[in-house]
Amino acid sequence: MFRLSQTARQAVKHLSAQVRHQSTSSSAASGMNAKNVSMAVAGAATVGTLAYLTMESVDANMLADGLHPPKYPWEHKGNLTTFDHAAIRRGYQVYKEVCAACHSLDRIAWRNLVGVSHTEAEVKAMAEENEYTDGPNDVGDMFQRPGKLSDYMPRPYANEEQARAGNAGALPPDLSLMIKARHGGADYVYSLLTGYQDPPAGIEIREGLNFNPYFPGGAIGMARVLYDGLLEYEDGTPATTSQMAKDVTIFLSWAAEPEMDERKKMGMKALTLLGILTGLSIYLKRHKWAALKTRKILYK
Q: What is the pLDDT of residues 135-173, one digit of tens each?
């Protein structure tokens, strides 16, 4: 599928107007002379060549920039709605069992999960499963200790070089702010996770890359990681590809904005208070000024 550039479209429109005008004039004048015919043919050939050279391929542009993701009705996007906390819990499970092998979550501490998706006891138990370097101790040595609520979630790699070495030179990005960092936000992440497919005819993907139309360029180093039945949810929800993609997208949306629920609650309180104060202000203004506005001044 192709489309003309703006310049080519204007040129074609201008030439068409000229041809129509000349055709009408010729009909009225009983024909166009040979010179005008030659000029019209030359003009048509010029514009045709220009249109061909400036022709843009929609498919090529979509492949270069990435297919724009469709809009999905995320419940937490409403002004009066909050995150689905059951989905956040399931999304953390997907992140822990699938995504955490390559991607970090540097801006989220264990304490952030308390009261959101897990109880304090559950979060403490999860944190203690990881070892953290601390110190120095009394003799100046560093030591390993179990994790605690104030610790941030561990990284899968010690440094960037190790991460690149383990992923064929590609650096897996941190997912803390991924929803805010990508155009399309949650729609893009969900579409990317569910958009893996075989490359269409005529498109070659080099070895080690995978075709995904939602990724800019169409070739992405991350292979498809979500498959039906990949894991088993604690609450019995069927672990389909779309369900896991939805849950981990909601979890990452919360990770990018963990204060959203509190911010909305504070906003509603502020609007309610401002409404009450506005009403009181109007009442007091009318009460104070009523006597002055309704008085009559009589002159004798």
A: 888 888 999 999 999 999 999 999 999 999 999 888 999
pLDDT at 291: 81
The answer, yes or no, to whether the previous bond of 136 is cis (omega within 30 of 0) is yes
How many Å apart are CA 176 and CA 108, to the nearest integer?
7
Sheet strands (E) in the chain: 2-3, 56-57, 131-134, 143-146, 210-211, 219-220
Contacts of 120 (CB under 8 A, 6+ apart): 114, 149
Q: Strand locations in 122-270, DSSP E?
A: 131-134, 143-146, 210-211, 219-220
Structure tokens at 168: 């064929």
DSSP bridge pairs for 56: 3
How far is residue 204 from each of residues 66, 68, 194, 209, 215, measured CA to CA in Å?
A: 16, 21, 21, 10, 15
Of 228, 238, 244, 242, the C-alpha closest to 195 is: 242
Q: pLDDT by residue (tens digit) across 165-213?
A: 999 888 999 999 999 999 999 999 999 999 999 999 888 898 889 999 9
Mean pLDDT of the 115-123 span? 96
Q: How far apart are CA 267 and CA 261, in angstroms?
A: 10
Tokens of 96: 């822990």
Q: Quote the CA–CA distance of 71 and 93 in Å, as a whole number.
A: 25
Helix-then-strand count for the chain, H and E:
10, 6
Q: Are strands 210-211 and 2-3 parallel, antiparallel or unpaired?
A: unpaired
Which residues make Cβ contacts (< 8 Å) with residue 117, sequence separation at least 6?
85, 88, 89, 92, 251
Separation of alpha carbons 255 and 252, rounded Å: 5
